[in-house]
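Make up an example, fold above all:
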Amino acid sequence: MKNLLFALCIVLAAGCGPVHHSDGFHGNLDLIKAENDVIAAATRLFVCTDNRDWTCVQDVFAPEVLFDMTSLGAPQAEKKTPRQIADAWDQGLKPLAAVHHQAGNFQATIRGNEADLFCYGIAYHYLPNPTDRNTRTFVGSYNFRLLKGENGWKIDRFKFNLKFIDGNKDLEGTAMK
């Protein structure tokens, strides 16, 4: 019995034998890490936006971003700098008392130093006002492309796909009344 226990300890200490050290095992770990890092970059974008940390928002983006908000009525997709995006969001969200993003159903596809990421997203905007219709909710999905460089994964394509808006569509306007 003592010998069996000793042999079991040796096998466990060795990482369950040669299968552990095959390229497939470490390749899968590298892929899982890359997927996790890509999802973390998008999550960071949402959290930084909610915190109105515009330096952090800029840091998540590549130096040039193909930015597409056409589903919300914006002009056609165009290339923007991280600063242009952060400044526009700062101006657009400034009147609101709170902003909250939730994202999920992440699907990442990694191809070397390039990744595509899809996720669902919900954004809540909150602004108390005399109508008591204090919220507006955007529901949709996002398509991101990220590139991996020496500073990690950076978003270089951003597309929001609106499904619907609920709540007070004139939130800022009703607060002025």
Summary: The radius of gyration is 22 Å. Residues 113 and 150 are 11 Å apart (CA to CA). The first helix runs from residue 2 to 13.
